UniProtKB/TrEMBL annotation:
SUPFAM superfamilies: ALDH-like. This is L-glutamate gamma-semialdehyde dehydrogenase. It catalyses: L-glutamate 5-semialdehyde + NAD(+) + H2O = L-glutamate + NADH + 2 H(+). GO terms for biological process: L-proline catabolic process to L-glutamate. It is an enzyme of class 1 (oxidoreductase). The lineage of its organism: Bacteria, Pseudomonadati, Pseudomonadota, Gammaproteobacteria, Lysobacterales. Keywords: NAD, Oxidoreductase. Its EC number is 1.2.1.88. One of its GO terms (molecular function) is L-glutamate gamma-semialdehyde dehydrogenase activity.
Amino acid sequence: MSFKLTYATMFNPPAEMHARFDEALRGVEQALGARHRLHLNGEDVAGVEEDERRSPIDQRRVLGHFAVASANQARQAVEAAHAAFPAWRATPWPERVRLLKRVAALIEERVYLIAAALTLEVGKNRMEALGEVQETADFFRLYAEEFEEKNGFDIPLPDDPLEGWTSHNRSVLRPHGAWVVIAPFNFPFALAGGPVAAALVTGNTVVFKSASETPWAGRLLADCLRDAGFPRGVFHFLNGSGNEVGQALVHHPRTAGITFTGSFDVGMRIYRSLANGPWPRPCITEMGGKNACIVTANADLERAATGIVRSAFGMGGQKCSALSRLYVDEAVADALVQKLKEKMAAIPLGDPRRQEHWLGPVTTRRAYDNFARCVAAITRDGGRVLAGGERLNEGELAHGFYVQPTLAEAPQTHPLFRDEMFLPILMLHRVQDLGQAVQLANDSPLGLTAGCYGSDADLAYFWENIEAGVTYANRPQGATTGAWPGYQPFGGWKGSGSTGKAIASFYYLAQYQREQSRTVVE
């Protein structure tokens, strides 16, 4: 590409980008309905059955027929990854780095085709889809470069102070073995590709299971790894349910570690399972968010409203970093609400294949149905809908999962201030001051992202006291969303993550390895 895409810089892309996306979309749509296989032990293979997937944009449109793995195939994949591990671990790390960079290059060559598929499968607008694909390429390249910079995490230490002897010491990080990656439906390419890249470059072999709602993205990632030339058995791609395939992977005795991205409940079950074996195995869980934004009496309300709308309603609120709770100083609440209503009314909503539409459908029928339940709960439990609140089921939107972005005001005791909805619903509560706002923001078992709009003094207090792993201040690009590899590490505190270390941070790759201290005496 002749320009660089990131979530922070893609608000005014060149015409070339739209032309290339439209061309790719036409090509992808002409090939819809194809059959897609698993990738097991170096070969593309059939599953035990096929799953016909349809687009959330229009349920009449069949995306393809996707192989579904059995629990036995999941076990075979882990055994094959375990068998391939010694040779892959022994592969010189510059070769592993080279292969990762090759994957990054292949993703960038296919960025428009993959993004077009994501738009059709997930319902993202083209900018979100292109951003996700480019982000994945950046993960592969960033982790390869970091492994190079760290010299394969082989670090010499001082010699022992022994008279008459020379005793050399070093710290070496070593891989664990067959690593399982379980990806979510909302970022099915990036949140698969990131941990896959980290596990592979550090010398682990990988079994990757896509979300059953988005197997196409998983298959497209598998194509890039297959075509990059990884040795047989080093990487495997499976599609199937969490109850069958996921459970088989989690409970396999050869599974050396797991990276899971998804809900708190499922993540904690996996975490406990890996802790309760014959020895504790590493488990990196990136779980949910109930993310808060604070608007103080000193805030720039125009900037705040812009960032709030982008974070609360972008991609239908289906980001783990999406803004869900808004705490506003009562002195400026009415003015902010008015600005939010105006910006929400101006959101271009519709078929996300079209350039002019910023907001498409939610991805699943379950989310579509859950939207109606949550809106009903707003008024039932003492709140009121300030804007939105309707499912859109007329005209050209009748065959997809379209809902209105929704703003509601409620007492802090309302259940929707606690529940992770994963929907374009923003709950607002008025506060007396910044101290109360921070206290309420922290009153959650989750702590992924948080934002604040206010003065320098407000921000100093916010950063000193907020309990979240990713924080933003006075950011019009997004109040709580928009982390990018190499710029903002992304990881949660409390129930939002099991390690307290962030994706694409200085500390991420070390989690896929174990330390070995080596001493040799001459």
